[in-house]
């Protein structure tokens, strides 16, 4: 019975599961209609048709996806026409398709996506790359390929990698072409590059070879030689054919083609020899699809599928994955309880009697749920991970960079949005931290047009007879730098020779003409000259133009060819003349501290020696003279007073060392002052000028005026414009009191040339700006880079110095252009010595007074205080002063050993009457007596 029950339960359970499974399957339709719209006869369409059909077979034969449900795909041919695409889309909507794969063309997509919005049917495009197709405008549009936004970013990074600054864009003049180039312009602008010229080709088959030739002739006359080609295959090969005919596929040109060309190469390689010859050296982008077993298996059976007539391109792989994406999304849709049902659009009810039969169009009720299932998909297809980010773009966009060579092409690297340019596959770098540093950006070598591996410069001077207009200032002073040849537009001078020598080093000819700038009556404003370049009136400027921050914001400068910077020039006087020149070695403070130190040391030694040394005793007048004499005589080490106390000798030894250093320093400084020329000026530099209120001169046209007002903060009322070296000399000689200036602020090259003939003036203080002279060109001008290289070459081979010596050879006067500074000895150089002697004196006095106080405490009387506390304090003070002034008994200072020896010698001396008499006399002399002041 137990066995019977168990079998019955199992049968019931199995039957229940079978019923549940049958119910789940029965809720799914047996057939789901999916549409597809693309151009059957295009390069992409031929591959996509086979890929979609094969994907449907694989999905329907796979029981793990959509069990019990088959996908049926109905295809419509848009023939790259927006009108036919719209008609085909409406036909698909009438057949109740739940999703549409396509459209292929970006132009067709704009026509049909409004229909998708109304009927809520998701459109999955595997080839519409227009970056302006926004999910905000078309919420039911899903792009299953990469947007041209990433492709144009890859091209911009290639341009920046090779240091090109300008490109020419040739594009098909429709939504696909225009919006792609707009994305390219934004990507280049982020890297300080730009599209210098846009050349649009009319869409459709009406464009002729002659039309394209007219476009390329205009392009050939332009400066840039980097061309980005963003067209369709038909017009693209015509462009390359005409470019080869015009010699635009020769050395020096760069062609960058978008992925339209890689699709053709993948599908029909090798191309006919005439087409391959016109493609040599072209760089092409191709959507990157990582290698996988599934992809290799699909490619291995492609020849059988296509009959060997064409190969598969990346868009065919995206079309295949789009079918699988729809299948997985439908499976998720059904698992979430979705039901395929359609409802009539109330707005179309009134059109039932129309011959257009628009009432057949119905709204897909589950469209939003299916759309969410598509966007939430996460699977791996032939093209890699199929997953969407927040912007509804496929994650991890990447491209192969290929180079057309011979009868085929080779891959030179990769670009990915994760790591930029690399020779390592992007999927390898995804496991590493992102690194976009310049050191990691690499590509393999390229064979450029003209069969050269040397990187093209990317630009040339246009061959249209146009000469560069180079502005040159007409100077009226310091014409050694720039001067106009009388009666001509030719110029000469140091700056002109440097420019000419640099141009001669360029590997190409530079047609130019000098344009005089200024009225010839005064030096022109160099800031206005630079602004003329930024405004487009001039193509460059040559001259003594200082590189300043404000100027670099509007133009590009070359490498500086001459050092410059603002300095101050002022009159001077010689220091080694006059009756009081011997006082100059020390500053006033140094003299004062030294004199005070002599007096302090004398007083300290007197205090230490007064009680025990007769040479430091006597009347107050004699003691004062002794202090002064002793302290001053130590200056010459000629003091005749001997020091007896240990503390006094210690102080004197340290003081004599200090005196030795001071004497030696004074002697050396005085010798230098009297034998070497010394200069002095009340102006010590820009700080002195700023603190004063005296007028300051500057050169007309120089940036010194702006710098002094804006940066230093000197009022413009104090500035005096000077136009020539002679005006400099006159203003400096007159000085502020006679209508002149206290100093002149100018750039160092001018000052050096001025001082070579004016020996009465000198540079004061330090150079307070660091700058240089350079040649100015418009922003992002490639000529500025090449001229900088040429200037560096001139500097390295010595030609720049030879040109400098030719025009600016200094005279003998300039050998004495050292800055004026005071060579006095200041207290800061000796404060350590004075600190040592001060500490020694202080310690000696402390020890001395401690000894006095100890002696005072032993000898102080213990009598009572009958006269009160005030009287007691007065007596104690008198006793202390008396003790300090009292002469100390020498016998108390002798050690016990000496007293013993003296007692022995006295016993011997007592045997002789004469010695006894001498002893008596000595004892009488030793009897204590009151000290004398």
Trace the largest sheet across and list its strands: 7-6-8-9-10-15-16-17
* End-to-end separation: 147 Å
* Radius of gyration, taken over Cα atoms and rounded to an integer in Å: 51 Å
**Sequence stretches where pLDDT stays below 50 over 5 or more residues:** 1-26, 814-822, 892-933
| Helix proportion range | 40-55%
Strand content: 15-25%
- The number of helical segments is 31
Structural write-up:
With 933 residues, this protein is of the alpha/beta class. Helix content is 44%, strand content 15%. It contains 31 helices and 33 strands. The strands form ten sheets. Strands 7-6-8-9-10-15-16-17 form an eight-stranded mixed β-sheet, with helices on both faces. 37% of the residues are buried. The model is unreliable at 1-26, 814-822 and 892-933 (pLDDT under 50).
Write a concise keyword list for the protein shown above.
disordered C terminus, 44% helix, elongated, eight-stranded mixed sheet, single chain, alpha/beta, 31 helices
Describe the protein's topology.
Blueprint: H1 2-26, E1 31-38, H2 43-60, E2 70-77, H3 82-94, E3 99-101, H4 106-119, E4 123-125, E5 141-143, H5 148-161, E6 166-172, H6 175-189, E7 194-201, H7 209-220, E8 226-230, H8 233-245, E9 254-257, H9 259-268, H10 273-277, E10 283-287, H11 293-300, H12 302-306, H13 314-335, E11 342-344, E12 362-364, H14 367-375, E13 379-381, E14 384-386, E15 398-405, E16 408-416, E17 420-422, H15 426-429, E18 468-473, E19 483-484, E20 491-492, H16 494-505, E21 512-517, H17 526-534, E22 540-541, H18 549-552, E23 556-557, E24 562-564, E25 566-571, E26 573-574, H19 588-609, H20 620-633, H21 646-675, E27 679-680, H22 686-691, E28 696-699, H23 704-712, E29 719-722, H24 725-734, E30 743-747, H25 748-755, E31 761-764, E32 771-773, E33 776-777, H26 782-797, H27 799-807, H28 831-859, H29 869-885, H30 896-909, H31 913-926
Parallel strand pairs: 1-2, 1-3, 3-4, 4-5, 6-7, 6-8, 8-9, 9-10, 18-21, 18-22, 28-29, 28-30
Antiparallel strand pairs: 10-15, 11-12, 13-14, 15-16, 16-17, 19-20, 23-33, 24-32, 25-30, 25-31, 26-27
């Amino acid at each position: 019975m137990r066995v019977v029950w168990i079998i019955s339960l199992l049968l019931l359970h199995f039957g229940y599961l079978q019923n549940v499974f049958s119910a789940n399957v029965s809720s799914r339709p047996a057939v789901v209609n999916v549409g597809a719209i693309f151009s059957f006869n295009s390069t992409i369409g031929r591959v996509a048709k086979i890929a979609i059909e094969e994907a449907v077979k694989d999905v329907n034969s796979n029981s793990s996806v959509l069990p019990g449900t088959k996908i049926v795909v109905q295809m419509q041919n848009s023939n790259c026409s927006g009108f036919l695409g719209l008609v085909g889309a409406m036909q698909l909507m009438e057949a109740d398709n739940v999703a549409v794969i396509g459209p292929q063309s970006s132009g067709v997509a704009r026509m049909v996506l409004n229909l998708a919005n109304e009927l809520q049917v998701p459109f999955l495009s595997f080839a519409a790359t227009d970056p302006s197709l926004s999910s905000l405008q078309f919420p039911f549009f899903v792009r299953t390929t990469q947007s041209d936004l990433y492709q144009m970013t890859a091209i911009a990074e290639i341009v920046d990698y090779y240091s090109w600054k300008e490109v020419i864009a040739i594009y098909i003049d429709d939504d696909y072409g225009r919006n792609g180039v707009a994305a390219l312009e934004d990507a280049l602008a982020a890297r300080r590059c730009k599209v210098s010229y846009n050349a649009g080709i009319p869409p459709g088959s009406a464009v002729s070879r002659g039309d394209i030739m007219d476009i390329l002739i205009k392009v050939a006359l332009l400066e840039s030689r980097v061309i980005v080609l963003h067209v369709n295959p038909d017009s693209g090969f015509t462009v390359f054919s005409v470019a080869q005919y015009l010699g635009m596929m020769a050395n020096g040109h760069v062609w960058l083609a978008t992925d339209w060309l890689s699709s053709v190469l993948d599908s029909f390689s090798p191309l006919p020899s005439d087409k391959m010859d016109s493609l040599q050296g072209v760089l092409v982008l191709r959507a990157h699809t990582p290698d996988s077993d599934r992809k290799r298996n699909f490619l291995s059976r492609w020849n059988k599928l296509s009959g060997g007539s064409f190969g598969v391109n990346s868009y065919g792989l995206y079309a295949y994955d789009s079918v699988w994406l729809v299948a997985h999304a439908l499976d998720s849709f059904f698992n979430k309880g979705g039901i395929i049902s359609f409802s009539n659009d109330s707005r179309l009810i009134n059109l039932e009697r129309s011959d257009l039969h628009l009432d057949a169009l119905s709204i897909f009720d589950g469209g939003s749920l299916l759309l969410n299932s598509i966007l939430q998909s996460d699977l791996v297809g032939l093209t890699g991970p199929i997953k969407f980010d927040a912007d509804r773009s496929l994650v991890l966009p990447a491209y192969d960079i290929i180079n057309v060579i011979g009868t085929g092409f080779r891959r030179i690297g990769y670009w990915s949005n994760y790591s930029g340019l690399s020779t390592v596959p992007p999927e390898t770098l995804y496991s590493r931290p992102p690194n976009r540093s310049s050191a990691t950006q690499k590509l393999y070598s390229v064979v450029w047009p003209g069969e050269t591996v040397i990187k093209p410069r990317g630009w040339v001077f246009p061959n249209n007879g146009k000469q560069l207009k180079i502005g040159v200032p007409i100077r009226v002073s310091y014409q050694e730098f720039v001067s106009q040849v009388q009666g001509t537009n030719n110029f000469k001078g140091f700056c002109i020779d440097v420019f000419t020598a640099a141009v001669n080093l360029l590997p190409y000819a530079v047609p130019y003409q000098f344009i005089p700038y200024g009225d010839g009556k005064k030096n022109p404003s160099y800031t206005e000259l630079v602004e003329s370049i930024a405004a487009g009136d001039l193509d460059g400027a040559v001259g003594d133009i200082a590189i300043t921050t404000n100027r670099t914001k509007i133009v590009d400068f070359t490498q500086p060819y001459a050092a410059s910077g603002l300095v101050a020039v002022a009159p001077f006087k010689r220091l080694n003349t006059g009756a009081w020149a011997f006082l100059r070695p020390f500053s006033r403070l140094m003299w004062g501290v030294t004199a005070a130190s002599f007096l302090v040391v004398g007083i300290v030694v007197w205090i230490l020696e007064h009680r025990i040394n007769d040479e430091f005793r006597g009347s107050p007048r004699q003691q004062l003279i002794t202090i002064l004499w002793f302290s001053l005589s130590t200056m010459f080490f000629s003091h005749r007073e001997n020091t007896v106390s240990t503390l006094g000798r210690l102080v004197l030894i340290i003081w004599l060392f200090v005196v030795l250093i001071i004497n030696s320093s004074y002697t050396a400084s005085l010798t230098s002052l009297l034998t070497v020329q010394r200069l002095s000026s009340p102006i010590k530099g820009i700080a002195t000028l700023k603190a004063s209120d005296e007028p300051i001169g500057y050169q007309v046209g120089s940036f010194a005026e702006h710098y002094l007002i804006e940066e230093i903060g000197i009022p413009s009322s104090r500035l005096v414009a000077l136009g020539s070296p002679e005006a400099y000399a006159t203003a400096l000689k007159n000085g502020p009191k006679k209508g002149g200036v206290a100093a002149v602020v100018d750039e160092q090259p001018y000052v050096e040339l001025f001082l070579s003939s004016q020996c009465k003036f000198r540079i004061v203080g330090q150079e307070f700006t660091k700058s240089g002279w350079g040649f100015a060109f418009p922003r992002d001008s490639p000529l500025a880079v090449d001229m900088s290289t040429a200037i560096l070459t001139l500097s390295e081979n010595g030609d720049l110095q030879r040109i400098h010596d030719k025009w600016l050879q200094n005279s003998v006067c300039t050998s004495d252009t050292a800055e004026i500074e005071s060579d006095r000895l200041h207290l800061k150089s000796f404060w350590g010595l004075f600190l040592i002697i001060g500490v020694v004196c202080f310690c000696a006095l402390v020890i001395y007074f401690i000894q006095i106080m100890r002696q005072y405490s032993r000898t102080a009387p213990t009598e009572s205080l009958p006269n009160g506390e005030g009287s007691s304090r007065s007596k104690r003070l008198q006793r202390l002063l008396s003790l300090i002034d009292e002469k100390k008994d020498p016998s108390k200072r002798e050690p016990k050993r000496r007293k013993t020896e003296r007692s022995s010698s006295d016993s011997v001396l007592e045997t002789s009457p004469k010695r006894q008499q001498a002893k008596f006399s000595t004892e009488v002399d030793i009897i204590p007596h009151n000290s004398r002041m």
